[in-house]
Structures are given as C-alpha cells and as structure tokens.
Amino acid sequence: MPTADVIPQLTAEVRAAAHPDAAPCHCGATTTLAHRPDTTVLRHAETVAKAHAPGTDPTALARRLATAAHLPDVFLAPLAATPATVLGTRPVTLWPYGRPVDPDAPDAAPWEPAATLLARLHRTPPLTATPPMRGPHKAAQAIVRLRRALAAAPLHPAAPPVLRAWSALPAWARAEAPMSGTRTLCHGDLHLGQLVRHPAPDGPWRLIDVDDLGVGDPAWDLARPASWYACGLLPAEDWTRFLTAYRAAGGPAVPEDGDPWPTLDVPARALTVQTAARYLAKALAADRALDEVGQSLIDACARMAPE
C-alpha cells in the first residue's frame, strides 16, 4: 500500500481502537506522529497505531511484540500481543500513548534512564524463537537508499568516503554474514527518539519501536551515542553520563571499567556510515547542500577509510 494511501485506513483503525464501544468521539482530530515510506504512526486520544514497513514479516513482528509485552519494565507494552490488522503488506500494531523526549530541551535528555533500560534489556534472557536483531540490516538499507539516490543524480563528492567506509566494515556489520557468538537481547535502533514516558506526561521512561528488536551484539545499542560522541556531535559529558549509567546498571556490552572502544569500534563505525548515508541521500533528494551535522558525519567516514 503506498505511503499516502495508508493514512485514511490507519485513521479508522486508531479511532476504532480508541473507542471500542463505538461511543461518540469527542477527542478531536487524529494526529500524525510520523509519516515516512517505512513507517506511519497516528495518535487518537490515548491510543497510537503504527503501520510498519511494507513486507514486514508478521510472524517475526509478533515475536518482537511478545518480547515487549514480556518486559513491561523496559518496553512500552503493546495493546495487543499480535498485529491488529494488515493494510496491504503493512502490519498494524496498537500502543498506548507515551510522551516523547523533548528535542528542544537537550539538557534534560534522559541519558541515564536510556542506559539503565538498555542494561536491563541486555541482561534479560531472550524468549524462545526471538529473531535476530536487525541493526546491521538497517545499516545496509541506508546504503541501498544512498546508491539509488546516486543513480538519479551526478556523483556527489561526499559519496566516495561513505562507500569506502562501508566497504571497510566486516561482513557481519554490513548484514552480509551472521552475528556470531552472542544471544543477547538487543533493541537494534537505540536513540533518544525511542523513549517515551508512560503514563504520560510524567510516568517512567520506556523504550519503544520493536521493529529491530532481537538477539545480537549488545554493543550495537550503544553505537549511535558512541558515534555521535566520536564525531563531535554529542558532548563528552553526555557520553560519559550514558556510559557510566550503563556500566552502573550491569550492562554487559562493554567491560566494567577501562577503555570501551575495542568493543564499540565496529558498531560505532557502522552507525556513522549509516547516518552519513541517510543524510547524504536526503540532501540529494532535496537537491540541497549538506548541513553541519551531515558534513561532520562525512568527514568521519573519510577519516575511517582514507583514499
């Protein structure tokens, strides 16, 4: 189902879920929280409906939902343990509303709660038949999108450093080989946009977004803040807050003390390339120059894989 076509049907789904007794609705309009080719999220009253990416495996998604439901002290629990319906090839899941992190209040960013939730997740034995964590697959998708954007535009000078840095990663980080030696439960796409307070507005922080949840290398879940710190985009004090809280909560992804970078190096480089590829693909699509953040990521790729 094309992205534009999903909103009317998803609106009907979320309104029906918010009013299962078919009572008259006085809640006001349905709000769009996200609308991209791979995700559409709508809110009506205190209910949220998410249309997942086209072609999402409903069996794997159901197992991820079961994990979230099994960990209510880590994840926002879904309203149903299986996808509510399917719109075309897009499964729909239902959730309670939680208040997200305020992007305009960086000093109040919940680095310690995020780290503590991750450590708790990483210490939890996975349920039977939990699918693999999809972090490397998501990174590979970003490169595919970049190559498509490059095919439709003149070669951008920022593209070669990104593609060289991607080629320099080991096969497992490019989703070309299995992650070996770990059965740790991982989020797969951790950033501050994946936390909400529930009940809103001041309940405890919980993780959201189960699309990439699964077993894999827990260092991947620390890799985005590590990448941003290494690129100069995250202040050292915020990175220290996050890493210290993760260690204090018994997180197994890095040693209890000492240098964490031997463990974090490959995942952090992979997340740097993934994010750089996304920034560049969006700049090409909009025919605009890279902003300061995008250029910092490109520069990091160039340092990782010089000519």
Describe the structure.
- By secondary structure, the chain is α+β, with helices and mostly antiparallel strands.
- The protein folds into two domains: 3-96, Phosphorylase Kinase, domain 1; 106-304, Aminoglycoside 3'-phosphotransferase, Chain: A, domain 2 (Alpha-Beta Complex), CATH 3.90.1200.10.
- It is 42% helix and 13% strand.
- The chain contains nine helices and ten strands.
- The chain has helices spanning 3-18, 58-70, 111-122, 135-151, 159-167, 220-230, 236-248, 261-286, 292-304; strands spanning 31-36, 39-44, 47-51, 85-87, 90-96, 99-100, 184-186, 195-197, 205-207, 214-216.
- The strands form three sheets. It has a five-stranded antiparallel β-sheet, with helices on one face. The protein has a three-stranded antiparallel β-sheet with strand order 6-8-9, with helices on one face. It has a two-stranded antiparallel sheet with strand order 7-10.
- A hairpin with a 2-residue loop joins β4 (85-87) and β5.
- The protein is globular and about 65 Å long.
- It starts with a helix and ends with a helix.
